């Protein structure tokens, strides 16, 4: 184990401590900030984009990337280490000290060469947005007039959106009404949804967003019926082409809201992967007069029966649907792809030309795990996880192969119906692939657990005749 300690002359009592331990080519990293001997912040295997300290030593600002590749902005009080919600990161470089100014080789803190700590990329808050937090309603209205007087521009829209981000209560309705008048001559395409604005939030800025959106994707974001109805009624979504709401808690009533939304008349792809809607909700979708342009509908890992999947395939209200997914596999418009000899591929609802197939029903389970296999979420949603890649391997091979495999991803694929007994043209099985990527004691332990999962799912050492 090696340890590096860093200090800055303007931050008395503050110590940054980096401990690194290597094992068989892998590196475990522990990163800690200590204030007068007490740990104020600690993170193992940090995924930090940037870090800075206020010059008075009272605040620590951390910018990191979450599993969805969105940047998180967190603020901690020093020395207690208590996270403070809603406090913006500083805008004036004169008020903070960036960690990379005094921590040598910060680009290596996440491990050799993987770049999971890039202290030089600390991003200050836009001055207009930072100033907006402390503004009085009168100040905001005055700043709004200044922005509108500058005329249409992308920068002007960003400044205007920043004014409204934290504006609640007194004066906000007056501000919206004034902005609507001033923005009337602005091109709609300039008035885009800013990244911080949640699709389902009842935020006043939504009254000003006008740029049409063609695609909305949300995952693991709970949506109640009113939030869903409010979101689908937004003018910016009137020409939506793709709507994917994965693991958002959408039940039968939510499905009825979708089915009754006239704004979805142009929708071509609807993904409701891993939601608790049942047969009643699925039938509501099939009876909708607004979903006639759908070409793809995914109800994977929703508790919808095979009989209702069959009904949807024959629904006159869904005449263009070519891809209908449910309970773990895909059924295309030309029929169900037959399983390979010696396999037990799980297939959902019949196509319009194929005889009904038996389907094993699986209980609904909320999505909680993070995917580490590229393309896994899309393959699960579209039911393509048993399709072969250019090397003749399925998605399950990718889940078990790298460095002893990923148990969570393996279980997700098995739960979706992945074929554990698939063999490549060379006769290799998923267990061969699993053992071929193992190189250390820790990886052997993980591999043993994955092998147990595969065998419990029906893996056979010898292919059936």
Can you describe this structure?
This protein has 465 residues and is α/β, with parallel strands linked by helices. The protein folds into four domains: 2-124, no CATH class; 126-211, no CATH class; 212-368, Leucine-rich repeat, LRR (right-handed beta-alpha superhelix) (Alpha-Beta Horseshoe), CATH 3.80.10.10; 376-456, Ankyrin repeat-containing domain (Serine Threonine Protein Phosphatase 5, Tetratricopeptide repeat, Alpha Horseshoe), CATH 1.25.40. The protein is built from 13 helices and 14 strands. It has helices at 127-133, 137-149, 154-165, 172-182, 225-232, 252-259, 279-286, 306-313, 376-382, 395-400, 407-415, 430-436, 441-456, and strands at residues 2-6, 14-23, 26-35, 38-44, 48-54, 59-65, 71-77, 96-98, 215-219, 242-246, 269-271, 296-299, 323-326, 329-332. The chain has a six-stranded mixed β-sheet, with helices on both faces. Strands 1-2-3-4 form a four-stranded antiparallel β-sheet, with no helix packed on it. Strands 7-6-5-8 form a four-stranded antiparallel β-sheet, with no helix packed on it. β11 (269-271), α7 and β12 (296-299) form a beta-alpha-beta unit. α5 (225-232) runs parallel beside α6. The longest helix has 16 residues, at 441-456. The protein starts with a strand and ends in a 9-residue tail after the last helix. 33% of the residues are buried. Mean pLDDT is 78; it is low at 106-120 and 328-371.
